[in-house]
Specification:
The structure is a homodimer. By secondary structure, the first copy, chain A, is α+β, with helices and mostly antiparallel strands. In chain A, 41% of the residues lie in helices and 14% in strands. Chain A has one domain: NADH Oxidase.
């Protein structure tokens, strides 16, 4: 049972990481992790995920600007509602964009030729879902190496897509910060900072 | 490195399983797996996934009927195009609905109160994506116990939602067969049967 129990540990301390040390990630390690992500399940074996590493400073700045704008808008929407949580929201660190050595954008090819359309006729969203499972595979594989990953979703998908100059047929899935975590914890960041807490699973299981 | 290499093995032989032995799955094991799935990442720590185990014969039959209708429509669409692959498509086994001891439907609560909206204002699809990561967590955890899981997406989401009588606010993510696999293989089913093959990852990584 050693492997199963270590797998459970991995699920438990996976975390969304938003603080990173400045240390770089070896290119060979990143390559290996992306190769593992490529083993994820995909509808019709279409492997529709597309990974884009973002190193260019101008492109990173455009993504950072989109995050800043969207996060400010989210904060103002709370203010407008006289939301008591606006102050707490403003203090949360929601992305590690400034410190993470590796920036990765993930897209899905909306209508991949590979897979010949199998399995997605009635549920085209399974293409995006496949890319999400590739992200999750990367997340677990990275964490197993001691790396941390943070998912940045407070972004305008159109702005990011434009900044990265990718094909029109690609659907933006998410933007990811990868690097060596400055903190390891079993407790989710949003729980540590009093925003939200895990709830018992039983409420989500219906028989 | 023993854990990392076993994790890689798990990614490699995870498979979408469509053939099951008749043996049942102990309820305690299923409970434990669903608890693990609940550790998945979620936008704003919203834990928006909803698991519904489907035991009722009438409900199972309704899902089976939807699969049959959608699969027939997919086959006819290929025939209409004089698709040379229609014969091969017709011979593929695309779901283990008749044998799998456990049937599980997964939904996402479209606008979960938990998480207080954090992270999903510009990308509401992250709610569904969170549920997909819970599915993938379940998949890996099940596989680590020797169980197999198969994702059935050849379904009408509205028909399944109606058959299972779930709240209107729930979005259908997928339907899953779980049980003890009749075959274990490193090679994807669709590759074994000549439908599609894995391609090199390099084409999907852009620097």
């Amino acid at each position: 049972m050693a492997f199963q129990s270590r797998l459970v540990d991995l699920f438990r301390w996976r975390r969304d990481v938003r603080g990173f040390k400045p240390d770089s990630v070896a290119p060979e390690l990143l390559d290996r992790l992306l190769d593992l992500a490529d083993l994820a399940p995909s509808v019709g074996l279409s492997q529709p995920w597309r990974f884009v590493t973002v190193d260019d400073a101008v492109r990173r700045a455009a993504v950072r600007a989109s995050f800043t704008a969207c996060n400010q808008a989210a904060l103002e929407a709370r203010d407008a509602d006289a939301d008591a949580d606006a102050g707490l929201y403003a203090r949360l660190k929601l992305a590690g964009l400034d410190e993470a050595p590796v920036h990765l954008a993930v897209f899905a090819e909306a209508e991949p030729a590979q897979g010949r359309g199998l399995g997605r006729a009635t549920m085209p969203e399974t293409v995006a879902y496949s890319a999400v499972m590739a992200v999750h595979t990367l997340w677990l594989a990275a964490r197993a190496e001691g790396l941390g990953l943070g998912w940045v979703s407070i972004l305008d998908p159109l702005a990011v897509t434009a900044a990265l100059d990718v094909p029109q047929s690609w659907v933006f899935i998410g933007y990811f910060c990868l690097g060596w975590p400055s903190l390891n914890s079993h407790t989710p960041e949003l729980e540590r900072h009093g925003w939200e807490r895990r709830r018992s699973a039983s409420a989500r299981i219906h028989r």
